[in-house]
Amino acid sequence: MVKRDSSYIELFDESIRGLFKDALRISLNDPGMALFLRRTIKWQAQAARVRAAWEEKGLHVPAFMIASITHRCNLQCSGCYARAHHRPVEEEMNNAELRSVVAEASELGISIVLLAGGEPLARPEILNITRDFPRIIFPLFTNGLLLDSAAIVKLKGQRNVIPVISMEGEETETDARRGKGVYRRLQGVIADLHGERIFFGTSITVTQRNFDLVTDERFIGGLFARGCRLFFFIDYVPVEEGTDDLVLTEAQRAQEAEAILSLRANFPGLFVAFPGGEEEFGGCLAAGRGFVHLSPEGRVEPCPFSLLISLRGDRTGERVDVRRSEVKRCTKQLIWRIEPSHR
Ligand code: SF4
After folding, report:
1. CA torsion 89→94→95→100, rounded to 10°?
2. How many CA atoms lie within 13 A of 107 on its CB side?
3. Sign of the CA dihedral 110, 299, 337, 286?
4. What is the Å distance from ligand 1's center to 277 Cα?
5. Ligand 1 pocket, 119 CB below 6 A?
6. Which one of 75-84, 166-175, 306-315 scores highest in mean pLDDT?
7. In this structure, are residues 218 and 258 in contact, taking their beta carbons and an 8 Å threshold?
8. Pairing label, strands 291-294, 270-274
9. At 37, is the pLDDT very low, low, confident or very high (cuts 50, 70, 90)?
10. Of 95, 215, 229, 313, which has fewest CB within 10 angstroms of its CB?
């Protein structure tokens, strides 16, 4: 058995607690949301205790799972890592398998499941699964264009699902990557979410080109005024040849951390950088230290970019497969097998 340093776990759990406490602080003027967040803080603490109990038994369970539930998407953005996978739809987990994996993750104490894709709402039935796990928080990373009135009605009844809409900046930057007219359509979606008092966020892929814009208080202030309260800054990972010049420079990475601190101080919103806190937590949080990634086919992988890593589960080259309710066994195997080499 590989000996691991687990001293960061308490710190990581504390940072999750802090995030929900901040969410409560900025939601006090919305009694329904505040009540939900008070319950969530309690449930997240219970989940942390479940994880701690597994840890005692020698099984490390991460707090997060990123579930890419489909490769399908209604857009064709440049540099899309999901499209780079080229997997047939038939290989995707069916709804029963997906539900089973979420149930087992919940049983293990995984308390936050980030839904991603492709476009997760290309499988709208996901909102029937999330409805049945009210104690799990599901940030739903979406391009936003499938957030129609039916989806918004469902989201109104599921505070545990938090839509997080992807954009690259203002209209020029967003449409340049996502297609003409996307930005304007998103403004309509954002207005609908705000009008229905749904807690929502945005996810911004940060590149060398949009760095100055998206870390500027005027840009964030504009989104804030339109109701956005959660901001993910995702550092660009090059999956397309010839795009290395979009990757943030070391100086920008340092500035990004400072900019986020400043934004936190000036806006009552939640600001999350990904990957972030690697130094604070003693290394990369992927590969089970903080989260695992579930592929649409049901494979447990170190992170959403593991296409590049070409995960093989162990030294013998056997692929770890989580299909058909094997998340518990596979989580255990995955973490022990991969963590040391991925740090
Ligand atoms: S919306 Fe997301 S998944 Fe769809 S093409 Fe764009 S980057 Fe890829």
Report:
1. -140
2. 12
3. negative
4. 26
5. yes
6. 166-175
7. no
8. unpaired
9. very high
10. 95
Tokens of 72: 């399908």
**pLDDT tens digits for range 292-306:** 889 899 888 767 766
Mutating to test ligand 1, I would choose from 68, 72, 77, 81 the residue with most ligand atoms within 8 A of its C-beta, which is 77
The encoded tokens of residue 250 equal 């070391």
Report DSSP letters for 58-117, one per residue: T----SEEEEE--S--S---TT-TTGGG---GGGS--HHHHHHHHHHHHHHT--EEEEES
Which pTM does this prediction carry? 0.85
For residue 116, which phi and psi values (nearest 5 degrees)?
A: -140, -175
pLDDT of residue 89 exceeding 80: no
- Helix 327-342 and helix 95-108: axis angle, to 10°? 70
Tell me how far apart the alpha carbons of residues 259 and 169 are, in angstroms, rounded to a whole number: 16
What amino acid occupies position 321? D
Q: Are 115 and 140 in contact (CB under 8 A)?
A: yes
Place of tokens 């207005």: 191
* Of 16-30, 78-92, 190-204, 227-241, minimum mean pLDDT range: 78-92
CA–centroid distance, residue 1 to ligand 1 (Å): 39
